[in-house]
């Protein structure tokens, strides 16, 4: 294979072999487009065969057959343009000689309509993650015909709560991933761009291509930033030298690999300062690892340590006794007010700052496995905007989720400056509230739906049992089930069943489609 580049990110080649697919991946291509119909000559690999090889290599594959000696029709040109817009990174087009792959590219480029500098929608949603998609779906169910734009450059959508189970060998990575286009509501407009700024005084969102989008109501749902560079040496050693994290799709399988291979030595698990996405996730990885080592009979040869910046094991006291029981069961050394500040992957040394009543001490710990949760902040584009409040998060009323200064701006999910736990369960409760209040705002009515701060954290303490922490603002317990059926303060098999079997389809088929099971919004009491 000798690709010939027509632009910085598009190249053409003659007929590919199955081996060429791996070579394309090694050369940095992210997608392959086949322009050659099957059966043109004997021995020609089929598009399906190349497509399967591409999928196994982690590459996207698009099939747009163009008969030799013909000009690609409008449908083919449009399909090529969509492929170029959808695939993030370098794209390789191929046919028998590369000529059709070149021709269709030139036609797609020439026929591309010039994007207007400014587009306008009733509602603009910045962010196409769980919060943005769920809000769009709930909004469109309440007010069909509303023009909605979702701004997000990502081509993949992830069920992030599943990564804990990927790191424990229960789920495969692929179970937590779908294409972004498959989850965006059909009635919504997808703008595949990066948000670069907000101008709420002129009701505009600025985009990476230099254009802007105008709105009547803005919903900010950009999530948070995982600051891998916030710990010295961490970014350089992730995915090797025994350093891993379930907070990334590509690293969770490495967690499971390390757990399977470790038979003796030291395993360290860390938690950064709050707020973070799913405050229980750092210890979930630890408990599930310890459970696996116990099952294999090697736990006695493995020293386990949990270093958390927080002053206690968990922020809601009612759940601490059950968790402490597992700390003792697995013989875990617990260090609170302990912050990871440096990682030397080559030497396998982790450096901590531990604070006590007598001051701060620097501790170096050798490790065989290190599971790291990085510091987390509001996205730069939010933190540096006029929408930001304390800590750089979007400043909103904690009940209505409306901005404290701009009545036509709302925020939810991880980016919102609220004190609730930053979890997918919180988004399930927030999305209907925002949707209802956006509809009221569009209709020039008072916002009335309120969010109570509900969040949930299924603490996986062993394979088959979970402590299902459910709580609202102020740490108030908010169980979804009667205590006789499921006592969330104790490890139960029913909670594991919900985590493994119920929550994933509830996410994909319920929450992202606007089905609001058990999350009906509360409302302000009449004066």
UniProtKB/TrEMBL annotation:
Keywords: FAD, Flavoprotein, Oxidoreductase, Quinone, Transit peptide. SUPFAM superfamilies: (Phosphotyrosine protein) phosphatases II, FAD/NAD(P)-binding domain. Pfam families: BLH_phosphatase (PF04273), Pyr_redox_2 (PF07992). GO terms for molecular function: FAD binding; hydrolase activity; quinone binding; sulfide:quinone oxidoreductase activity. One of its GO terms (biological process) is sulfide oxidation, using sulfide:quinone oxidoreductase. It comes from the Bacteria. Its cofactor is FAD. This is Uncharacterized protein. It comes from Neoasaia chiangmaiensis. The lineage of its organism: Bacteria, Pseudomonadati, Pseudomonadota, Alphaproteobacteria, Acetobacterales.
